[in-house]
Amino acid sequence: SKMETNIAQALNLSQSRINVKATTTEGLGFVGRCEGIAVMASASLKFYNWTQI
After folding, report:
1. What confidence tens digit (pLDDT) does each residue in 6-42 have?
2. Where does residue 49 rank: exposed (0-12), middle (13-18), buried (19+ CB within 10 A)?
C-alpha cells in the first residue's frame, strides 16, 4: 500500500518489513461515534551488542 511504501522510505527499510493493519470500533466509544480518531503503533526491535561480536 502507499502507506507502507511511505513508511519504508522514511525509515530506509524494505517495504516487506512494514505491515499496516486497520480495524473498526463497531460504533463503540468516541471513535465509533466519529467524535475523534485513535492510533496505535508498535515496533519490534533487535539489539546487537557489536562489542561482543
Report:
1. 999 999 999 999 999 888 888 899 988 989 988 888 8
2. exposed
Distance CA 35, CA 25 (A): 12
Query: Residue 10 is inside which H or E element, if any?
Result: helix 2-11
- Residue 15: Cβ within 10 Å count: 13
Say what the pTM is. 0.58
Please identify which residue in the block is written with the cell numbers 470500533.
25
Residue 33 CA to its chain's centroid (Å): 24
